[in-house]
Design brief:
Number of helices: 17
Distance between the termini: 39 Å
Strand content: 15-25%
CATH architecture of the largest domain: 3-Layer(aba) Sandwich
Largest sheet: 8 strands, mixed
Number of domains: 3
Strand order of the largest sheet: 5-4-10-9-8-1-6-7
CATH topology of the largest domain: Rossmann fold
Helix content: 40-55%
Radius of gyration: 34 Å
Structural class: alpha/beta
């Protein structure tokens, strides 16, 4: 089991100035009580911003059977300055146990030690990390060094300046990708306004989500997106699950250069994106519709899009079998809640919805009968640095695109072949082209009854291709395409089959070679 630690930005403590009996002195701020959202069974007191959420995390980890062993905190010079004087402590009720001047750091340590003693918990260690609020990124190196492998890191984002949460979100990414065996625990925030400690993991997860989306758009990788929604299977809509499945199928085929029907797999992703967009829009619309009805039923508000009567009219059309007039207010609210529940989207699906148009726009343009689909696939792979995949798609599928564009004309005998044989014939059409004085011709080696090539006058004999012929009207264009094919086919072979001898040979000529 990973060792539980806490990470936070230590907040400075500012004593209050009070006027009493014609004298002016400082006292510590009032102690506030906090409860974890939705749970009134435990109360956590706090004076500093970090205090209550840290106590909650210590308590939560202990109840899960794995005590917190250390607190890592980003600590500025101000937190190491004795801003809490002995005189301040003297005038502050309830702090007689502390003596001498205190810093924000020593005060927090004393409060947490006191809490652990009171609860009978293991006393935690304290590890400060130098932090300059004007140069927050400088602390990242220290974070990486300190957050070594094997930690479960819970984060309190309450303390520090407003931009401190950005630094902590970067730290969360370091934990996820920069350490072996470490994991992110709870992320919490303590609100002084309503005295609640709220879980913020979903907000931090959005950073992962955006990164996963970018991974698919830029590199065709779908594993992170699939894992992201896979951990939320209970809440994820079937359409989003299907989209992830289609993305993974395409991504795996692309990574392994299994390019047969890759255009169909890309089309499946494109269709799933549109299907997911339509489904999520429908869910979001219906959820808002039921929300309008329930909230306007309690009290009329101009914030909602519809009045109560308008919302109920739409709901009645959607549910023609229900007589809503038969429900009194409490029962109607329960019924609307029941009807609304299937349309609830988790937060990250709500974020996915507005991003789908961008994904579609940046993904491969694949149509049902689009003869340019293969060319678009090749262009997309090349643009996204997937050169090996671009070469494979070009070699295996470009001839099929040329057939669709009318460069080759199908002969009657082609219909006698099965589907697999047809694919093999089509993919080699450019291989079977040869240059003659009269122009480009489509030919194959002549064979005898046993299938062996026929050789006459020391040369293999060629005969016309039995299944296709070149379209004479497009022959001049095809010559240029053929020349490029020969060049790219040779480049593809060097990339796919490079060995040490070939690399040495290419190096001797000053040509770089890619070894895969």
């Amino acid at each position: 089991m990973s060792e539980n630690v806490i990470l936070c930005v230590l907040n400075a403590l500012y004593p209050d100035v009070v006027h009493e009996n014609s004298s002016v002195h400082e006292i510590l701020p009032r102690e506030h009580l906090y409860r974890y959202e939705g749970d009134n069974s435990a109360v956590y007191s706090g004076i500093q911003a970090n205090e209550a959420p840290i106590k909650y995390l210590i308590d939560s980890c202990h109840k899960q059977g794995n005590d917190v062993t250390s607190i890592f905190y980003l600590c500025s010079e101000k937190c190491l300055t004795a801003t809490i004087t002995a005189e301040t402590l003297k005038h502050s009720p309830g702090f007689k146990s502390l003596s001498g001047d205190q810093t924000a750091e020593s005060f927090l340590q004393a409060r947490i030690d006191e809490y652990c003693s009171m609860m009978g918990y293991v006393h935690v260690g304290f590890t400060p990390i130098a932090y300059n609020p004007s140069k927050p990124a400088d602390a990242l190196r220290e974070l990486i060094i300190n957050l070594t492998d094997g930690y479960r890191v819970s984060i309190d984002i309450t303390g520090g300046k407003r931009d401190a949460v950005i630094l902590l979100s970067m730290a969360a990414q370091v934990i996820r990708i920069g350490t072996e065996g470490s994991e992110l625990g709870e992320v919490v925030y303590a609100s002084l306004a309503d005295g609640t400690i709220t879980r913020q993991n979903n907000t931090f997860d959005m950073v992962d989500f955006i990164s996963a989306i970018e991974g698919f758009i830029e590199y065709g990788r779908a594993d992170r997106l699939d894992n992201f929604f896979g951990t939320r299977k209970k809440f994820t809509s079937p359409e989003t699950k299907d989209l992830c499945c289609k993305m993974v199928t395409f991504s795996d085929a692309l990574a392994l250069c299994q390019v047969r029907h890759i255009d169909r797999k890309a089309k499946a992703v494109q269709d799933a994106l549109l299907g997911t967009k339509n489904a999520l829009e429908r869910h979001a619309y219906l959820y808002a519709l039921y929300s309008d009805a329930m909230e306007q039923m309690v009290s009329s508000s101009e914030i909602r899009e519809r009045t109560f009567d308008e919302a109920m009219s739409e709901i009645a059309l959607i549910n023609p079998d229900l007589d809503f007039s038969a429900f009194d207010s409490p029962l109607l609210n329960d019924k609307l809640t029941e009807l609304q529940k299937p349309h609830m989207l988790e937060r990250n699906e709500l974020l996915l919805l507005p991003l789908i148009p961008s994904i579609i726009n940046k993904f491969i343009n694949v149509g049902e009968n689009d003869s340019d689909s293969v060319i678009n696939l090749i262009e997309w792979c090349a643009k996204h640095q997937m050169i090996q995949q671009a070469f494979c798609i070009y070699r295996e599928l470009i001839c099929g695109s040329l057939v669709k564009k009318g460069y080759f004309i199908e002969l009657a005998a082609f219909d006698d072949l099965d589907d697999s044989a047809k694919e093999d014939v089509i993919k080699d059409l450019l291989i079977n082209c040869s240059i003659y004085r009269s122009g480009l011709k489509l030919v194959i080696d002549e064979t005898d009854e046993t299938g062996n090539k026929v050789k006459r006058d020391g040369r293999y004999r060629k005969v016309d291709h039995p299944y296709f012929r070149i379209n004479d009207n497009k022959e001049p264009q095809l010559r240029t395409i053929f020349a490029w094919f020969r060049y790219l086919h040779a480049a593809r072979n060097m990339v796919m089959h490079a060995d040490d001898a070939l690399i040495t040979e290419l190096s001797d000529y000053g040509q770089p070679a890619c070894r895969v």
